[in-house]
Amino acid sequence: MGERAAVSTEDTLVRYDNPVLVTKQPEKVSAPPTGTLAQPCIPTEAKRETEEILNAILPPKEWEEDGQIWTQKISSTPATRLDVINLQEMLDTRLQQRQARETGICPVRRQLYTQCFDELIRQVTINCGERGLLLLRVRDEARITMEAYQTLYCSSIAFGMRKALQSEQGKSDLMDQVAKLEVERSALEKQCTELKQKTEQLERRAAELRAAEEKRHQEELLALKKTNAQLKAQLEGIIAPKK
């Protein structure tokens, strides 16, 4: 059995006519699913034009089952006030049954409201084809805008992911650089400590040398003073007898 390519009328809010069998076997006579033979009718020019507009707005559905092709067109029956009330009740019921979210992005809620809008377009088109075509433009424009927002959303997510990966990579590089700088800082601190020790050693050595030099200078000064005193005493001893 082939799988149906279209959604059944029970799963959509749009009103369709009964399915029509397009058989592949001319010798096999098949009856419509309702069990009644379709009576031929000649639609008026206005009705034919309305059906053409409806088929252009909402194309007929086709699927294959048991080797036979079925087709189902959009209904051209005008909607009454009761139909509109039932449509609203069906919309609320489907939203609850399928647990659609009331806020945020929800594909289920969007699908149901799209079906509801298509049904409203169908109802309006039957009364005024031009108004239905204008609503079709509004629907297509809203769909294009939504698709553009979805594309922008997906691209923004991809951009955010790339930026996150780049930031993670940059963070890893910065961590490596920090570790490298820490090693360099430790080496410089060690070198600084060694230089301080050498400086202290040099300062102590210089102080010792300066103290030794001062001591030697004092000793030489004392020796020179002593020698000077001796020479002075000798000179006075030589000069005194002459007087």
Automatic annotation (TrEMBL):
Residues 171-234 form a coiled coil. Keywords: Coiled coil, Dynein, Motor protein. The gene is LOC113392993. PANTHER family: AXONEMAL DYNEIN LIGHT INTERMEDIATE POLYPEPTIDE 1 (PTHR13183:SF0), AXONEMAL INNER ARM DYNEIN LIGHT CHAIN 28 (PTHR13183). The keyword Cell wall biogenesis/degradation does not apply. GO terms for cellular component: axoneme; ciliary base; dynein complex. This is Inner dynein arm light chain, axonemal. Belongs to the inner dynein arm light chain family. It holds the Pfam family Ax_dynein_light. The lineage of its organism: Eukaryota, Metazoa, Ecdysozoa, Arthropoda, Hexapoda. It comes from the Eukaryota. One of its GO terms (molecular function) is dynein heavy chain binding.
